[in-house]
Every structure is written in structure tokens, then in C-alpha cells.
Design brief:
The protein has 148 residues and is an alpha+beta fold. 36% of the residues lie in helices and 26% in strands. The strands form two sheets. Strands 1-8-3-6 form a four-stranded antiparallel beta sheet.
Length: 148
């Protein structure tokens, strides 16, 4: 558990009401990972949703695509709250990293039991993921054309 006000510093939670932040804080933990550590393995059941506090990481896919995420507020492991609940890529820390982690089943329970809170969280997750789509789409187009 972390203090509810600690969650307020992440954009993904800015729209949440104090009682919603308090509910999330009860299931949140701080997690640290070392440079080179893999925190998510592609294909594994998605059990944890992470909000990055600091560090740099890489999301790598089996087809050779990869992207890097840098620092505060990035989210990984969103498959823990969105079907299908299996991780879509490997997440490897490029530097020492720290995260706020949420058990996916508990976060999903909160999202489903509080429609207003769930809508706010899912909208923010969708915005973050959508920002990654152009990069991934361009990488696929280059591969289809035979370039890298």
C-alpha cells in the first residue's frame, strides 16, 4: 500500500476522486527492478499492471519490433486489465527502474465495480497505448517493404 496522494503525481490518475485514489492506493506497491531485468514475459498470463516512476525500459516483441519507454507515468502490463489477459511483449529494464504495481485482478475488480473510475483509468490507458501505435505501425510497414 502507498499513500493515495502519491498516485496523484501520475497523469493516468489525475482525474480520479480522492476516494478512488484511496481505493487504488490500498492495492498498490512500489517495485524496483535492476538494469537488464525482465519484468514481463511475452505470452505469460498478465497478472500485474505497472505505472513507471523512473527509469528506461524496452518493450520487445517476438517479430523484432521494439520500443523504448522513458520515465515517469508510462504504463506497461496493461494486458492485466484488458482482454486477452496475456502479455503481448517482453519488458526489459534498460536502467534501474521503479514502478507502482497493481495486481491486475484487484485493479480489474475496482474498474468493474466503479464505472466512473474505470472509465477514467481506461481512457488514460488507451491514450498512452494509442501514442505508441504510430511507431509500431511504421515498423510493420518498413518490414513489409523489406527494410528495417
Amino acid at each position: 500500500m502507498i499513500p493515495a496522494q502519491e498516485l496523484r503525481k501520475y497523469d493516468i490518475f489525475l482525474d480520479l476522486e480522492p476516494n478512488e485514489l484511496a481505493a487504488l492506493a490500498k492495492i498498490a506497491d512500489v517495485v524496483h527492478a535492476s538494469e537488464g531485468e525482465t519484468i514481463i514475459n511475452e505470452g505469460q498470463p498478465a497478472r500485474t499492471f505497472y505505472v513507471m516512476d523512473q527509469g528506461n525500459l524496452m518493450v520487445a516483441f517476438k517479430d523484432g519490433r521494439a520500443l523504448t519507454l522513458h520515465g515517469h507515468g508510462e504504463v506497461v502490463g496493461w494486458s492485466a486489465i484488458i482482454h486477452p489477459t496475456h502479455y503481448a511483449g517482453d519488458v526489459i529494464c534498460l536502467t534501474d527502474c521503479s514502478f507502482i504495481s497493481f495486481p491486475g485482478s484487484e485493479m480489474l475488480r475496482l474498474i468493474q465495480s466503479n464505472v466512473a473510475m474505470g472509465t477514467k483509468i481506461m481512457r488514460m490507458v488507451s491514450e498512452r497505448v494509442a501514442n505508441r501505435i504510430p511507431f509500431l505501425a511504421e515498423a510493420v510497414r518498413r518490414r513489409l517493404k523489406g527494410g528495417r
